[in-house]
Design goal:
It is a single chain. The radius of gyration is 17 Å and the shape is globular. Helix content is 38%, strand content 17%. It has a 4-stranded antiparallel sheet with strand order 1-2-4-3. By secondary structure, it is α+β, with helices and mostly antiparallel strands. The chain has one domain: NADH Oxidase (3-Layer(aba) Sandwich), CATH 3.40.109.10.
Amino acid sequence: MNEVLKALRERRTVRNYKPDAVPQEALEQIIEAGLYAASGMGKQSAIIVAVTDKELRDKLSLSNAQIMGKGEGFDPFYGAPAVLIVLGNKKYPTYAYDGSLAMGNMMLAAHALGLGSCWVHRAKEEFETEEYKALLADLGAEGEYEGIGHLIVGYPDCEAPEAAPRKDGRVFWAK
């Protein structure tokens, strides 16, 4: 079977990670995959904030948990040491789709590198706050961005789950 098609079938969400840092080179390869995602009219509206600083990672986790209505001690990032946040530039009408494609590419790239990943929501709500808008400004991101998702990345500390059977009745041919 073709390697890409095989990766599409085998990639699974991981929700339990070892604390080991992900090598910079691996993160750069994952990010590059996101930057090469298709985008509406080739505008490349998605940006990626790569977080490996533990203090900021933990702060984001706490913010995310609070948005979920969870208390301290709950880690919506499941112990993953790296968080790749995808945001879309709202001046482009396809920003949400562009960011989603970037997330998908990065999940497949992480899998191809032997790493686990999971798309964690609530980036939209986080980056609507002044605190995280200021973070973007501090990083040099100019424009109005909406958070698409957090891609948590790390070494799995669990076995990959089996794929659920694919549901019937989801393909309609118009021949």
